[in-house]
Amino acid sequence: MARRVFYSFHYMADNWRASQVRNMGVVEGNRPATDNDWETVKRGGDAAIKKWIADQMFGKSCTVVLIGRETAGRKWINHEIVESWNQRMGVLGVHVHNLKDSAGNTSWQGSNPFDGITVAGRPLLNIVPVYDPPGYFWDSTSYYKAIKDNLAGWIEEAIRIRQQY
Questions:
Q1: In whole numbers, what is the pLDDT of the chain averaged over residues?
Q2: Displacement of CA 34 from its chain's centroid (Å)
Q3: Is residue 31 scored above 70 in pLDDT?
Q4: 75 φ, ψ to 5°?
């Protein structure tokens, strides 16, 4: 049975890459927000955004942070990471910079979004696994295949790690 996961990512920069990962069919993911949905949620302010995130996380066992060039340090990414950890969900990161965007471009690798996040005195940088899929930088399909072949195992490992803390 596929795990139910919450995907965390920088919407404007990486929604195309995130849709590729969600559509792999490896795990069951959260319903992606459309541009109109997200604009409506944002107009409701921080409380509405927190509620939307909580609703999306409900019933999930793991959060997969899809790491693009601009993911680290974003307010809502950080919130999703901390909330996932606090809800005892597995948490992991996967670099997606070498998947192509809607224009067919790859990107630069982003920083680790877990760097600087401490929960209950624990620096998540030293706990949460982050994967940079192997492949050839000119061949987005090799990165796609590496993610598809390994994501389910990475999720199980993240859940196992979280159970230790």
A1: 91
A2: 17
A3: no
A4: -50, -50
The sign one gets for the Cα dihedral 38, 48, 70, 26 is negative
Please tell me the pTM assigned to this model: 0.92
**Type of residue at 43:** R
Model pLDDT for residues 5-24, shown as the tens digit of each residue: 999 999 889 999 999 999 88
Identity at 89, one-letter amino acid code? M
CA dihedral 142, 128, 85, 77 (to 10 degrees): -50
Q: Tell me which architecture the domain covering 4-163 has in CATH.
A: 3-Layer(aba) Sandwich (3.40)
Q: Which residue type sits at 73?
A: G
Cα–Cα distance for residue pair 4/135, rounded to 1 Å: 27
Could you tell me which of 94, 112, 84, 111 has the C-alpha nearest to residue 149? 94
